[in-house]
Amino acid sequence: MLGSSRLFVDETRAPVLDPGRGRTKTGYFWTLARDDRPWGGSDPPAVLYSYAPGRGAEHAIALLKGFSGVLQTDGYAAYQGLTNPNREGGPVTLAHCWAHVRRKFYDIAQGSPSTIAAEALKRIAVLYEIETEIRGQSAETRRAVRQDRAKPAVEALRAWFIERLAEVSGKSVIAGAIRYALGLWDGLIRFLDDGRLEIDSNTVERSMRPIALNRKNALFAGSDEGGENWAFLASLIETCKLNRVNPQAWLTDVLAKLVNNWPNSRLDELMPWAWNPAKPA
Fold first, then answer.
1. Which has more pLDDT, 87 or 6?
2. Contact 47, 29 (CB under 8 A)
3. Contacts of 131 (CB under 8 A, 6+ apart)
């Protein structure tokens, strides 16, 4: 996974028991995802969950040790340290998420009528309409269309944001939403120049939903070690789903093959994207 040149990353809560204190504590699942299908890439889709006892930058640095490329994510500050040009293995380039920008204006519009929020949503919707049209096309085509149609719309949106920011109270919620977008601007426009990138980090957010659902059902992991085991199994199961493989059938067949001395030199053949249940050792 870390050998990829483009990854999505996100993190979510993972409550675990805190022995001796009679309550739970908050751990986190850090999630890496890869999915090149929107532009026809050859790398198979995959997701990796990694449990950590916290959400600090040190966990992001440990998770992504050895990775060098573009990281698609929200505006969480923990990832900024990865852009250090002196970072071992090379710096990481951040591509930020338009869905998070949109969400801020959507929440404002839901709370009370706002002409600025409504207009922002309308302008961002234009970008998503373009993305819908080019999904599944080549990276070259996606870039060309974005340069021709999305780039002028994005440039106009930035100018409009600056104008509106000068009109509203600096302490207002709408000003906060605009500053959020402008503060991440370099990362937000990165998708315009690379057809392999997505406009948002929804790819990894979709991979977080099963974790959130299971968190409601299971309530908590029994320990930090339980969180690590949960992350490991979730990685296998959700990667199977991404590759349209039945997780139960895959686990049953792969465990049987491993017990029956499947060659270590052929472990790659057991990965969900390469799995063939009829293939003998």
1. 6
2. no
3. 150, 198, 199
